[in-house]
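Thread amino acids onto this structure.
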């Protein structure tokens, strides 16, 4: 679904940002799409880990969420992107500062949308995700529902919104070309 927000001129040629909740498959889909488009893939969480020398969990532990959000926004805006690449973003990134506007101005944005129950079943390994590491399945479902209400107003600003359940990279590429 193209949500009618203005499309940039970049098509599949510039920066392509994948956004969405934890567990929706941004990193995996970014790798697959990068292969199809024969372009590099940048994972901003991995870049934060590289640059800070801390895992995301360690970063939260040491400096707190506010510092993480500033660091993540700086990383988004100052990264030296190749001319054409697919960028996997952290689940919270679009919802802080003007990050969503910035991505829409600099490339294509694709929201990988998924139901809360599907997200729960995909979020087995929670230890590396500080916001949800102590929740059981029931608590996680409630948490995701609540968070999605806060976050969807941002996610829904993506130029392309696509159902991420059973999504293959071919469909994703097609959505970009429409
Ligand atoms: C977060 C999502 C994580 C990571 C951090 C915070 C969030 O990324 O940036 O743990 O606020 O939703 P993934 O969506 O890649 O798990």
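Threaded sequence (178 positions):
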């Amino acid at each position: 679904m193209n949500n009618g927000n203005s499309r940039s001129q970049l098509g599949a040629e510039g920066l392509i940002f994948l956004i969405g909740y934890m567990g929706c498959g941004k990193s995996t889909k970014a790798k697959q799409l990068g292969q199809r488009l024969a372009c590099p893939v940048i994972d901003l969480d991995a870049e934060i880990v590289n640059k800070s020398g801390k895992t995301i969990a360690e970063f939260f532990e040491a400096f707190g969420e506010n510092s993480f959000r500033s660091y993540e926004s700086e990383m988004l805006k100052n990264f030296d992107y190749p001319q054409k690449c697919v960028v996997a973003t952290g689940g919270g990134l679009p919802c802080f500062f003007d990050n969503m506007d910035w991505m829409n101005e600099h490339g294509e944005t694709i929201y990988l949308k998924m139901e809360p129950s599907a997200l729960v079943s995909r979020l087995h390994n929670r230890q590396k995700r500080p916001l949800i590491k102590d929740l059981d399945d029931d608590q996680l479902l409630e948490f995701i529902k609540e968070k999605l209400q806060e976050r969807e107003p941002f996610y829904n600003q993506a130029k392309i919104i696509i159902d991420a359940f059973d999504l293959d990279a071919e469909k994703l590429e097609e959505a970009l070309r429409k």
